[in-house]
Amino acid sequence: MSPTFLYHYTSIETLIYILKNRTIRFNNLNQVDDLNEGKSEDFRSIGNYFLVSCWTGLEEESIPFWNMYTDKMTGVRIKLPSDLFNTYTIFTNADYGLDPGAINSIVPPDVTFGINHWIVPTHNNFLKKVEYTDDKVKLKPALKTIVGNQFTIHLDKIGIYKATHWAFQSEWRYIIKVFPFASEVQNMNNGSNLLRESLLSINRGDSVPFSHLDITVNEEKFKQMEIILGPKSSEADKIIVESLVEKFNPTAIVKNSDLKGTIR
């Protein structure tokens, strides 16, 4: 079960973009801090097809997080409800290689399907708790199964495991899969199976056209934002953040860190 709230440590500069645009940026899995992520036994760059936004379920402030993800402990910690994104209805049929019907997704339909890529509808299953393990089979899995002339790529094994030395993060992450497909496969009514074409593209190592995506936050969830200033934030930092909040999200709460004045 997902926690009611999640927490994200970041810079004041990033906070500006979040407040102004009302979006959270999902970055390529190959850009996260753990250099071992996004790897598998049979694909060199499988992490290119995953976009993630990383949060923690730890309610208590974390000194390691302040050190790792803010500039000299002068950034912010954002608190938001875990169901923070808008959802949209994506209608699928057999051409997609998915069960026909309506699927809820945090990515709007006009963004879901591009010229040579598509974003897999999330089935309300885009928030994952990271599992910490030293099992090398999980950390660097084999993804391809071949039976006769058919093959399957098990992408659900990627993005959910990290080594145990990262366990202090208690991480939850939102995951979006971006699948490439051959540029000539653009019409969903031409009898092509989009999932099959995508697996062929992934098997070839085809690229996707972007390394990040900004996802809109639900307005009512956005209003519930709480911002804690870093332990070493200055009075000027506080004035900047309070001014930003007053302009872009006046219902948000701004607080000083419980650690302020306790760290040299």
Describe the protein in words.
With 264 residues, the protein is an alpha+beta fold. It has one domain. It is built from seven helices and 16 strands. The strands form five sheets. Strands 2, 3, 7, 8, 13 and 14 form a six-stranded antiparallel sheet that branches. Strands 1-4-15-16 form a four-stranded mixed sheet. A two-stranded antiparallel sheet has the order 5-6. Strand 15 (226-229), helix 7 and strand 16 form a beta-alpha-beta unit.
How is the topology of this model organized?
Layout: E1 5-10, H1 12-21, E2 23-28, E3 50-56, H2 63-69, E4 76-81, E5 88-92, E6 101-105, H3 109-112, E7 117-119, E8 127-129, E9 131-132, H4 136-139, E10 144-147, E11 150-153, E12 161-162, E13 171-180, H5 194-204, E14 212-216, H6 219-222, E15 226-229, H7 235-248, E16 253-255
Parallel strand pairs: 9-12, 15-16
Antiparallel strand pairs: 1-4, 2-3, 2-14, 3-13, 4-15, 5-6, 7-13, 8-13, 10-11
Report the structural category.
alpha+beta
State the share of residues found in helices, binned by percent: 10-25%
Separate helix tally: 7
| SSE topology string | EHEEHEEEHEEEHEEEEHEHEHE
| Poorly predicted regions | 185-191
- Beginning-to-end CA distance, first to last residue: 38 Å
- Largest sheet: number of strands, sense, barrel closure: 6 strands, antiparallel
Shape: globular
Write down the Rg. 20 Å
Tell me the fraction of residues in β-strands, as a range: 25-35%
How many separate structural domains? 1
Tell me the number of strands. Answer: 16
How confident overall, as mean pLDDT? 90
